[in-house]
Amino acid sequence: MIDFGQQFLMELFLHDKYMEHLEENHKKYLERVEFYRSFGYDLEKERDFILDRSLPVSGDILEIGTGKGHFALALAKCGFKFTTIDISEEEQGIARLNIQYYRFENQVDFRIENAEDLSFSDHSFDVIFSVNVFHHLKKTEVVLDEMARLLRRGGKIVLGDFNAKGLAIINECHTREGRTHDYFKHDLNEARDYFSNKGFEVSEFQSEAQRVIIAKDKKII
């Protein structure tokens, strides 16, 4: 026989533990934002810069490289519904908690995927974002091929990554934390040249710490 009182207490206990976990994760998120800001990198301001330069944004949206969910949170706060992929379950788990804290979970479809071989059909998305991911990629052209494959006619791809100042700040932050910032020697020049050669209309923007490449498909829908 089911003891519904005991079951209720167990569910209440699990809920309280989960809420504690959610609060603790949010506390760490705020600490990390402030830590970066103390070195001169305003994480939230830089995300807003990328998003502002990418407007207007509409249709089906994909984010490649969820990470801890900083850009996903910026998208969700603006009311967008989107799909976000990452190869790391651990990193995306942190992102889920960040999204859930603000109760945006109904806006975000989380997927564990490899950016070099995505499961989506051709021409599935109108806008594709990838922020502070490019320097981590081993096979940049393979990932760029996937982005081009997934983009719909008339759509756009928005790539943001650290400029020299931003990368120096992030490297210093990692050093202070006793970590190493592992990355390949790739920069957005490769993406700019790739999309230009494909016939895209390419524009570029710079903030204090970020570089942004926007590649628009010029084909008529």
- Supply the CATH architecture: 3-Layer(aba) Sandwich
Helical content class: 40-55%
> How many domains make up the 3D coordinates?
1
CATH C-level category:
Alpha Beta
CATH superfamily: Vaccinia Virus protein VP39
- Total helical elements: 7
Broad structural category? alpha/beta
Q: Catalogue the unreliable spans.
A: none
Which shape, going by the Cα principal axes?
Answer: globular
What is the topology, as strand order, of the major beta sheet? 3-2-1-4-5-7-6
Distance between the termini: 62 Å
* Structure summary, number of beta strands: 7
Radius of gyration from the CA trace?
Answer: 19 Å
Major sheet description = 7 strands, mixed
CATH topology (fold) name: Rossmann fold
SSE pattern, N- to C-terminal = HHEHEHEEHEHHEE
Characterise the protein shown here:
The chain has 221 residues and is an alpha/beta fold. It has a single domain (4-216), classed as Vaccinia Virus protein VP39 (Rossmann fold), CATH 3.40.50. Helices cover 46% and strands 21% of the residues. It contains 7 helices and 7 strands; from the N terminus they run ααβαβαββαβααββ. The chain has helices at residues 4-38, 43-54, 70-77, 89-101, 140-150, 164-176, 188-197, and strands at residues 61-64, 82-86, 108-112, 125-131, 151-162, 201-206, 210-216. A 7-stranded mixed sheet has the order 3-2-1-4-5-7-6, with helices on both faces. β4 (125-131), α5 and β5 (151-162) form a beta-alpha-beta unit. α1 (4-38) packs across α4 (89-101). It is globular, with a radius of gyration of 19 Å. The mean pLDDT is 90.
